[in-house]
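Entry for the shared binder. Reason: the reviewer on the internal report wants the predicted structure included alongside the sequence.
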Amino acid sequence: MACCLTLSDNSICRIKPLILLLLNLNICIEQISATSYLIPSELSNIDRPFFDDISPRNVSVVVDEIAILRCRVKNKGNRTVSWMRKRDLHILTTNIYTYTGDQRFSVIHPPSSEDWDLKVQYAQARDSGVYECQVNTEPKINLAINLQITANNDLEIINSNRRHYDSKARAKILGSAEIHVKRESTIALTCSVNTHASSVMWYHGSSIVDFDSLRGGISLETEKTDMGTTSRLMLTRASFRDSGNYTCVPNGAIPASVRVHVLTGKY
């Protein structure tokens, strides 16, 4: 019996180092396995898009000036960057494309840059509010910027800037100076500019024509020709409220105006 116990003890003594070696090997394998699972997760967090928050969250400009809302996106990859107006949840731009009839809105994105800035030309008091730069990650991330426009009189600005125009560069609205249209018909105004204007704005009375208004049915088409620039404004389903003075204001040229009368009766 004693001999058997001795042999058994010796066997256990010989097995112990082997057991310890196997245990240590198993621990190493678990650590390597855990590391291999952590690395993709860490890399996915590193590659996830995020905002380089260097721009001001509050932007203030004077009416009729250019407003720039800055948005810099790091690690964009194949994600989409959009600008949304918070008050009506209207998507204004997606990447470099504009999804609004209001041509005052556009995106400034120099090639190969991380900047996706929203540009608002001829800013108006109604443009005040919160705008969001969004990236379609899961979940979506957004950067909110508050735009404040200092109100002013648009017609005063037009008149005060006349002295800065080249007297040879001027706009002309084709047709009569007085236009009469029937109610529910289409108002079509064509403005011809004898120079290549960088932009052409339309005013109804003292306010810029609002392409995103609840009225709807307003469109603008601007064309560059060999002779200059042509801008066409169309308003469908004309009503009495559409009556009034319309002014074509090209950048760097003398504006032109026309008066529209919407006939509500037979005559």
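Summary line for the report: The longest helix spans residues 2-47.
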